[in-house]
Amino acid sequence: MNTSKQIPQWRIVAASVCGTSHVKNKQLCQDAHHWQILPNNVLVVAAADGAGSASQGKVGAMVAVETAIEHISMETVTQDTLADDAQMRELLTKALVAAKKAVEDEAASSNNQLHDLATTLIIMVATPKVVAVAQIGDGLAVAKDSIGDLFALTMPDNGEYINETTFLTSPGALETAQMRLWREDIVNVGVLTDGLQMLALNMVVGEPHKPFFFPLFEFVANAEDKTLAKEQLVRFLNSERITQRTDDDLTLVIAAFSN
């Protein structure tokens, strides 16, 4: 009989799907996401929403998330790094800078204007003891601790007017970045783009909506088959329950730290 204990680890399910309005107009999904698990149970997540008005928004989003994850994965994220607030902020800031430069380089090499690749960007670094997030633009990052408290680490930056936000490519974008560190016993984390904000956020009190997140967190904690779990998440995001309330592109990354 095998009595060895299973080592606790992150379970992640993530998907980006095309909004019904984009399907109708034969447009590509402008969202992108990327994630990686580094040594010592360090989970790195990035999600981006290319601007609907940007002709190459999808490219901007993909370049941003892939560069952010690659940059952090190439850094040596030690226990000392994780324990030091200043080092964590520097890690996230450098990832934002690298992503912004990569989008600028892509625009130049493809003979596009920078605004053609406009995109938001959320970067998260999470361990069982700390979660740190940097965000430019709209979208939302959340975490749940071991006693069941759900916390919004960032809030959508919608600018002065509805449907307006700051993009990674906007002038002064880095100065607008939200940055948050939360040191608790982390059980779940989640990142989503603005298409899901209306469902995931109680706008009246400015808090994440537990009835939205808690079933999803339970789902990912029990997701043993990664392929099947992703298919189920895609079905959920394409379901009438969701599409009745939003026609935008949708990205959702959810993770659970469990045995």
Describe this structure in words.
It contains 8 helices and 12 strands. Helices cover 33% and strands 27% of the residues. The longest helix is centred in the middle third of the chain and has 25 residues, at 85-109. α2 packs across α4. The two termini are 19 Å apart. The mean pLDDT is 91. Strands 1-12-9-6-7 form a 5-stranded antiparallel β-sheet. It has a 5-stranded antiparallel β-sheet with strand order 2-3-4-5-8, covered by helices on one side. With 259 residues, the protein is of the alpha+beta class. A hairpin with a 4-residue loop joins β4 (121-126) and β5.
Question: Which helices and strands, and how do they pair?
Answer:
Blueprint: E1 9-17, H1 20-24, E2 31-38, E3 42-49, H2 57-74, H3 79-83, H4 85-109, E4 121-126, E5 131-136, E6 140-145, E7 150-152, E8 178-182, E9 186-192, H5 197-200, E10 201-202, E11 207-208, H6 210-221, H7 226-237, H8 240-243, E12 250-258
Antiparallel strand pairs: 1-12, 2-3, 3-4, 4-5, 5-8, 6-7, 6-9, 9-12, 10-11
Helix pairs in contact: 2-4
> What is the CA-based Rg, rounded?
18 Å
Q: What structural class do the secondary elements suggest?
A: alpha+beta
Spatial order of the strands in the main sheet?
Answer: 1-12-9-6-7
What oligomeric assembly is this protein in? single chain
> Can you summarize the main beta sheet?
5 strands, antiparallel
Write down the overall mean pLDDT: 91
Helix-strand topology string:
EHEEHHHEEEEEEHEEHHHE
Helical coverage, percent range: 25-40%
Tally the helices: 8
Please report the total strand number as a whole number.
Answer: 12
Shape: globular
Instruction: Pick out the low-confidence regions.
Output: none
How much of the polypeptide forms β-strand, as a percent range?
Answer: 25-35%
Through-space gap between termini: 19 Å
